[in-house]
Amino acid sequence: MQLVIVFLLSALLPLSLSHRQDPLGWLYAPRAQGYFLGTLQADAAAADCPDECDCPPSFPVAMYCDGRGLTAMPNIPSRIKYLYLQDNAITAIPDSALSNATNLVWLMINDNQLTSEAIDTKVFLKLGSLERLYLQHNNLSSIPVNLPRSLRDLRINHNMIEKVTPADLEGMDNLTIFYLHDNAITDIGSSLKALKSLTLLDISGNRLTKVPEGLPEHLHQLYLESNSIESLPEGFLGGFNQLEYIRMAHNQLTDKGIPPSTFNVSGLVELDLSFNKLERIPSVSSTLQHLYLQANKIKGTHLMSFKEIVFKDQKYIIMWKCFTYYLFLSSAAEFTLGSFCGLMDITNFSKLQTLRLDGNEISREDIPTESALCLRQASTIEV
Fold first, then answer.
1. What are phi and psi of 199, to 5 degrees?
2. Distance (Å, rounded) from C-alpha 157 to C-alpha 138?
3. pLDDT score at 45
C-alpha cells in the first residue's frame, strides 16, 4: 500500500521533478544521513579510544589524554585531529607513535619528560596538516628535525635548547607564532629570516648578547627581555612595517648602545626598556602609547619652574622662559620633553598614555610643568 502511495505521488509531480530528483528525498538525506553518521562516529569513538584517554562522542575527532600519568605514547586512532597529551611523564616519541595519526591538526605534548634524542627523526614527516605543536616544558636540547611545513604555531619554550640553525626552520613559511623563550640559546644567526609569515617572536630568557640578524619583516610583537644584550644595530627597526610591541627589559642596554632615533619610528604602541642601564630617556615617536623605563639610571634636570623665577625687568622673565623652554625640548639633559615631543603646541603632542619612570634617580620635581601640554593624554606617570 505504501509503495502505491509513493508511486502515485511521484506520478502527479511535474516530469522535471519526478525524473531528476526524488521528491521524498528529504526524508532520508542529508539530515537523516548526518544522524546515522554521527551515531556511527560516536560508536567508533568509544570502540577505538584507549582506556587511559577520553574521546567525547560529541567531539569524535579529539582525544584527551592529559594529566593521566602516562609514560609512553598511547595508540592514536586515524580519525583524531586534536590530541592532548600534556601534563604527563612521556619520555619518547617513536616513529610508530604517530604513523596512524596523519590527520592531526593540533598536538599538545607539553609538560612531559621528552628529550631530543628520544624523538624519532621521522616522527613528524607524515603530519602534513599539523598546525599547532606544543613542546614547551620538556627536556629538549634542540629543535626536532623534519617539522611539518604546515605549522602555524610552534611553542618550544622552557627547554634546554642552546642553538638554532637555518635547517631547523627551513621551509616553515606558514609559521606565525614562535615561542622560544626560557631556553639557553646563545646564537641564532640568521635562522629566523626564512619565517616569512611570523608575527609573534618570543626569545626572551635566553643568553643572547646581540639582537638576532635578519628578523622577519612582518613581526607584530618582538620579545627580547631577560637576555644580555648591550647594544642595538643601526637601523634596528627600519626593516619592520607592522611592529607594534617591543619588550627589551632586563638586558644590559646603555645610552651609547642605542643609536639616535632608534625608537623614533611610527607604528610602535608599546616599548619596554625597563631594568637596563639607561641614563637618559631615548627619543621616541609621538605616536607611542606605552613607555616603560623603570629601574634604570635616569636622572632629573632639577630645573626650576617658571613660577619660581622672579625678575624686576619683564624682558628678562621672557628671555629666561624661552631659554628654559629650549632646555626642556632640546638639551642633552637626562630628562627632557624633547624625548617625547619634537614640537609642542595645541595640535602637536605625545600620544603616551603610560610612562613608567619609577626606580630611577628622578623625582616629581624633575618633571617640567610643561609636561601637562606635551603629555596631555598620559593617564599614568609613575616616578
1. -115, -25
2. 9
3. 58
Q: Which cell numbers in the block locate residue 67?
A: 594529566
Classify residue 241 by burial, with Cβ atoms within 10 Å: 0-12, 13-18, 19+: exposed
For residue 30, whether the previous peptide bond is cis, meaning omega lies within 30 degrees of 0, is yes
Residues of the chain with pLDDT under 50: 1-40, 302-333
**pLDDT the model gives residue 43:** 56
Task: Give the whole-angstrom CA distance, residue 42 versus residue 39.
Answer: 5
DSSP reduced 3-state for 191? helix
Grid coordinates belonging to 13: 509531480
By C-alpha distance, which of 65, 100, 62, 95 is closest to 81? 62
Query: What is the grid cell recorded at 252?
Result: 644590559
Decide: 335 and 298 in contact? Cβ < 8 Å.
Answer: yes
Which pLDDT score is estimated for 347? 75
pLDDT attached to residue 36: 38
Q: How much is the pLDDT for 316? A: 37
* CA angle at 363 for the pair 232 and 254, rounded to the nearest 5°: 15
- In sequence order, the 6+-apart residues with CB closer than 8 A to the CB of 137 are 110, 111, 112, 157, 158, 159
Give CA angle at 235 (231, 241), nearest 5°. 120
Within 8 A by CB and 6+ apart from 235, the residues are 259
- Other CB atoms closer than 10 Å to residue 158's CB: what's the count? 20
Tell me the residue type at 49. C
Give the single-character DSSP code of 144: P
pLDDT for the residue numbered 2 = 44
What integer pLDDT is reported at residue 46 of this predicted model?
67
Of 140, 120, 124, the closest CA to residue 132 belongs to 124
Instruction: State the pLDDT at residue 329.
Output: 39
Cα–Cα dist 4/291, whole Å: 82
Q: Contact 352/377 with Cβ under 8 angstroms?
A: yes
H/E element, 123: none
Q: Which residue is listed with cell 521528491?
A: 23
Q: So what's the pLDDT on residue 26?
A: 36
What does pTM read for this prediction?
0.81
